[in-house]
Fold:
Amino acid sequence: MKTIIPYGKQTVDENDIKSVVEALQSDYLTTGPKVKEFEEELAKKLNFKYVVAVSNGTAALHLASLVLLKKDDLVITTPNSFLSTSNSILYANAKPIFVDIEKNGLIDLKLVEEKLKKEKIKALYLVSFSGLQVDENKVKYLKEKYNVKILFDNAHFIGKDNGVCDIATYSFHPVKHITTFEGGAIATNNKEFYEKLLILRNHGMYKDNTMYPWEYKMIELGFNYRLPDVACAMGLSQLKKLDYFQKRRHEIAKRYHEKLDLEPLYEYNENSSYHLFVIKYPFKNLNEKAKFFEKMRKEGIFLQYHYIPIPSQPYYQNLGYNYSKEEFPQMDKYYLEAFSLPIYPTLSQEEQDYVISKIKEYLK
Ligand SMILES: Cc1ncc(COP(=O)(O)O)c(C=O)c1O
Structure:
């Protein structure tokens, strides 16, 4: 077998194509009826009162940060995420504070509490890494005790919300659970946040034609972060298959657990959305890990690693952030050992078994 097996990819069928073509033939390419329909369907699936569809997950984080944060606010977040999570804190002129992770790849809430005791923190930006949400009871406790705002970066998670966060953000990039090509969403139960987000998504303006028919008013410094109608038509079609997509991801995760003898990120968890399936191997150093990736590539298997510790990035180093093994022992160990295996709905059992056999061959 020599087809390329990536770590993740979209599932697009004839119904998606039909929905997109219908949208293309309608009167609306940009903002039209599909946007509201998609937002309403998402709100039902995610158990939030309000959803605002935006052009990507980074835009979702940006607008959420403008609603939650003020200049110089301190925000605790994880080094184990895609850049957007902490970048969005910087977009709002606030300051990310990174806290080490646990073995399961999620931020360590015990260390978070130590920081909360010492400094006045405005918000916790908690990433549902790989598809697993941070312990809701502990988050609730911290939220109440330290009066912090909670944002869930749910780019890796999709499912019913547990009511703990103030805002959750989503991404519909093709490797995610559903896709709208590029795309994202912000979800909240707070009406004031919702109304502000709608305005920020559309240049900070709203239509006010009480005086003249053409009139609009700009009241915030907003952006064009609208998600087009055509993309929302795609999203509506994809949402119909979400349960099936999740069922497939869970079947694949279970099979990896059964057939692979390596240390998983966590034991099979029915609440995970399994955007990623991560396992660990005690590589001696990063070069050895890179060689393993290269060998697997030659076999057509494109493994991936998520994520390079954010504070170690040159931009963050220039801002004065430190990244050391001593400060982030778990993150450092994770960077050395972890890697992500292929997981997506169309990965066949034959392909998965091929991946498993090659991993066994190279990581004896
Ligand atoms: C955890 C996390 N947050 C945010 C994003 C940003 O989403 P997008 O690529 O849609 O901008 C991603 C995307 O990979 C992500 O994985």
In short: Residues 242-259 form the longest helix (18 residues). Residues 116 and 128 are 20 Å apart (CA to CA). Residues 56-58, 81-82, 84-85, 127, 153, 155-156, 171, 173, 184 surround pyridoxal-5'-phosphate (CB under 6 Å).
